[in-house]
């Protein structure tokens, strides 16, 4: 009898609430799919406008960059920038809306552990990032002939980038008590880091000091890794980029997990 009780206790301790985790992940996916014209078509239109503007303004006079036409070089950067912005927006807007609306307790009350909550939210961010990546990549391959030299590398960096940005979105939402605070974090931190990470240029064109700063920016490694996966060239070793992005992802995920476990600022 004692052994049976112990076994049951171990099973309960080690059990995972798969249904609850799946339900949260499904809710996060349905939340952005219900407004697909904003979350899917909007990024596609914005990426198309970036490519169109650069084609008209710079394309005719710009030579090859890293051995490929400028527009082909530019497309992976624009795609990755759009992916990371959307992954960040998915988790940050979801948690911030729940906090401001006062219904965050509906997510915290069910029997979900901190890890299960984290997996559910991050799954939504990765799903949104992947859908945006597929749509923009298909459009770029069709319109400008963007290649796909190393698809596994591109996939790995899109997924890792979505995970990192989804976790950072949760960090921002935990600290933000109002939507204008969340917007400030996005406008003054996420967007500048995304733009100053080799999205529109090779960092070899920068002065040495700025190149050093770029190498401290994890966004640079995400964009550079995706660029390696698509056009086959990059500013840094993709294995180094993989280690850096994975390390940053692990650190931020650990921080968010601890906050979810303790309830830090979640009801503010």
The helix tally amounts to 12
Overall geometry comes to: globular
Distance between the termini: 46 Å
Count of distinct structural domains:
1
Average the pLDDT over all residues and give the rounded result.
87
Structural class: mainly alpha
Main β-sheet: number of strands, strand sense, barrel status?
A: none
Question: What does this protein look like?
Answer:
The protein is mainly α and 268 residues long. The chain has one domain (19-262). Helices cover 76% and strands 0% of the residues. It is built from 12 helices and no strands. The chain has helices at residues 2-14, 18-33, 36-39, 41-57, 70-101, 105-108, 114-143, 151-175, 179-195, 208-214, 218-231, 238-262. Helix 5 crosses helix 11 (218-231). The chain is globular, with a radius of gyration of 20 Å. It is found in: Cell inner membrane; Membrane. The chain crosses the membrane at residues 35-58, 70-89, 118-142, 154-175, 182-203, 239-260. Belongs to the ABC-2 integral membrane protein family. One of its GO terms (cellular component) is ATP-binding cassette (ABC) transporter complex. GO terms for molecular function: ABC-type transporter activity.
Brief digest:
The protein has helices at 2-14, 18-33, 36-39, 41-57, 70-101, 105-108, 114-143, 151-175, 179-195, 208-214, 218-231, 238-262. With 268 residues, it is mostly helical.
